[in-house]
Sequence to fold (600 residues):
Amino acid sequence: MEIKSRSEIDPKYTWDLTRVFADDEAWEAEFTAIRTLTDDLSAYAGTLASGKTAVLAALKAAFDMMERFERLCVYAMMRQNEDASVTKYLAMNDRAGSLNATVMTAFSFLVPELLALPEGTLEAYEADPDFADYSAFLHDVIRKKPHTLSAEAEQMYAMAGDAMMTADNTSEMLRTLDLNLGTTRDEDGKQAPLTDATFVLFLTSMDRQVRRRAFNNMMTRYAAMGNTFAALYAGQVKVDMFCSRVRHFASSREASMFNEDVPESVYDSLIEAVHQGIGAMNAYLLILRAVVGVPKLHMYDLYCGNVADFEIKMDIEEAFQMFLKAVEPLGRDYVEDASRALNERWIDVYENKGKRSGAYSCGSSYGSTPYVLLNYKPNYDGVSTLCHEMGHAMHSYYSNKNQPFPKADYSIFVAEVASTTNEILLNEYLRREYRDSRQAQIGLIGNMLEHFRTTVFRQTLFAEFEMKAHQMAEAGESLTQELLSKTYYDLVKQYYGRVCVVDKSVASEWMRIPHFYSPFYVYKYATSFCAATALAQNILSGDPEKIAAYRRFLTLGSSMSPIEELKVAGVDLSTPEPVCKALDYFADLVLEYHGLLSNP
Ligand SMILES: [Zn+2]
Fold:
């Protein structure tokens, strides 16, 4: 099917960005105005010691500028995402990017001057109702004070930032451009190019030899560059160690998690609880082995098990109604608020030439409505993505509505909770709707089980790998290819080895994972998914108090620490309990799946 150009798309299904700026001229005028604002803000530098009124005035000026600048940026970004071939928007986006440096420079006097105020002053301001809008910001400045360096040292640290990206940049160049993955034999016995994209297809092939060859070829080609990948990753770990030591942290993990205000116990609790769930996952692998129909399950067999596909076909109007049905347990007003999204054109629905791929939600247009970009496909994945992105959008909608700008933007740690909760609500809704269809139940449960395996188990395995790598380096060991590959292999064996034959070749898989260059990031995929599972259970219990607690969470923005916000929602991730609860849900699904498959 020919992809349409943007002008051929029904405007009804494009987003209406005039709520952000009436037109491009209004954007231009604002661009000029913000340039002036940055000069105005600089005038506050050096005034903060004169007392409360001056500090309040400076904070107000700084955050007002940030709010307007953010709106400027998201408009340019969303316009560019509509069609990357429009050079006008490419230029606008570039100019917004350049203005960023000016804005940041204008802002940069603020924190050092606040920190230089007499002992106890910031604490008094944080508690002062006049500073209510800025209390979360002040709280963060106070919290980070012991890890903030002198102005001169901070400047040097910032100057090293670019060079510290070398391992990340180089590994990406190697993975995406320079590493030739060669070819592999396809189902017709012909040599076909092996790339990250074709790899996924080969792994879902029903021809086992195709899967086996693709997997082994992929791992062999990575292993051939193993010393280089090990040196790059060791380089990244050294950067993480440097950054944590300079800022007086005991470990890289502590530094990383401190930054987001998440206690390290969350990481340990996750691993501890997931280890207890390894048995349940292997019970699932046993079922998968039977579904795939092989005497021994290898790692390359894991992706072709969802044969019982459940397909629903629907246009965006029907999909949107299905979304509203799925979120009904959240309350009538949630449904009413969410139902505005399609009519008021918050959503850019269809693919067009030059449009950004994938999907996202953007809540950074404070004072306007959230926006959602989709490339809608009329199938289960399409509906699920709509529910996911609307989860983000409604979280932004309620946070923006209830919080002042400086407290509105929620943190990455909680970001995927509302989106995943909506996905689970959709899955549960469809399971109720199609309760009499065995095929639908198998498809829907199978989908959820794979989601669990790849999000909770696989990401926790990754989290454990990077934790061990950092610990070894911090203990003075040298991160060689041999050591890293052995560490990875042992983990795969621990997670999958009860049912799977774990071939030696899998030891190189860690080299393929780009996320390891964003240290201590992947555990958040697992914690978000577990929190969402526990919260979806709370919501579906129908208990009005539990639903109200979740709804309150959606309004919090970044007004509290992420862990406290999730406690408000009804999950305490500093204990293993929510992860255990999620894994109980997983174990129940495994049993149900087994029952369905063994009673045709
Ligand atoms: Zn998301």
